[in-house]
Every structure is written in C-alpha cells, then in structure tokens.
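Quick one: structure tokens for this chain, please?
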Amino acid sequence: MELTIVQDLLLIILAGFVPLDKYGLTLGLRWPVITSVFAGLIVGDMPTALYIGGTLQLMSLGVASIGGSSVPEYGVGVVVAVAVAATSGGGVEAGLAIGIPVAMLMVQFDVIAKISQSIIVRHAQTLANHKKFSAMYRTLLCGPVLMFLTAAIPMSIAVFVGGDMVNAVLKAMPAWFTGGLTIASKMLPVVGVALLLNFMPTGKFIAAVILGFFLVAYMNVSMLGVAIAGTMVCLVYYAFNNTQMNNSNEQGNGGLEDE
C-alpha cells in the first residue's frame, strides 16, 4: 500500500501537533491511543492503528514528564508506526520496530527544543524591556513553530525517505530478530501495566488485582467485563469508606455531647 501526497502531509501535520498538544492545546493528541484514531483515519487502516496505539498507550502509562524532564514521545511514535505498517507491508511488528525508536529519539529533539525555547524567551524579554511588543509577539510565535518542527521533520524523513529504506531493513533482518520483535511487541503492554502498578497502591488493593487476573485467566471475561467488575469494586470500597467515616463522626459527636 502506498500513501498519497495528501495522506503524507496529513500524517506530518498530525505528528507536528503532538508536541504542541502536550505543551498547550491539550486536545488529547499526546495520548497515543487518541493519536492512533486520527492516524488510522488518514491511512485507512483503523484496526492496525488502534492496535499500535493501544500498545504504545500501555507503554506510556508509567511514564511522566516531571520537573521539565523529557520523555519518549509515544504519540509521534504512533504516527510513524502506523505509516510504516501501512506502507511496508510488515504489519504491526514492522511499525513498532520503527515507531518505538523514533519515540525514544524524540527525547533528544525535545531537549534541543527546550534549550532553543530559553533563547527565544530571553530575546522576547529583551524586546519587551525596549517596549517593542509587536516584535516580542512575533518572536514568541517561534516557540510553537519550533515545537511543531521537532516532530514534523523526523516524520517527513520517515514518510518521504523511509519507505524504501524500511523495506530494505526489514528484508535484511534475520528471522530470529523479527521473531524477537513479534514477541517483544506482545510483551510491551505487560511492561507498561507493570510500570503503572509500581506507582499505584497495589499492595492495598491486591485483592482487586487478583480478582481481575482470575476473571481473565480462568473465566475468559472480556476487558469490558473486567472494567465493570472494577467499577463495582470501586463503588463498594467508596460506600464502605463513607459508612466508616459517618460512624466515626457520629461517635465523635456523641462523645462531645456526653461531655
């Protein structure tokens, strides 16, 4: 499958808006599963796009940009992976093999962009001190444009140059390596969930974790069923906590009245 020029341009624009969304627009494009929906609409292969988006979404669950630190841009990785999967014929494994390294590479581009942003802001501050506000506004617009280019340029290379290169690389890969990629792509969601559980009070709610595992492993309950069961557990826990708090308040009020 070959993408048209319009599809290529739409993918580049979509990738460019991912970092913009993370730092300002907040439309949800920073979440891989949402980005994958738009990428799937563009390439016309929604099942593959959602599979890739879901996989990278699980990888990103335990990752957070704290204190201005740079983290892998999985949203851009999704766009690249969907484009590669659609054009190379290698499927999800080929897409993830290229998309994940691109997401990791975006860490370096993000660092470069943040360093450049400090220069832009310093120059804008100088213009503001000299009361050149029109020039200051134009200078500040360079920031979003720069963030857009940090993702649009790698995406352009992947779209316009990477097709033949990706096919050549995939053909040169030995069977044991592609087989390893297939296994790794199936393990990545587990790694993402494990990272997420590491930051959650898992020990306190271990019974809920065991219940979810039991429902899936022994009763073949779908994810929707597990989600409903989890909601029920939350409601029971919430009601139990409210009852305990009300009892504590009543005892406290009774003690004050006795005095």
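The chain has eleven helices and no strands.
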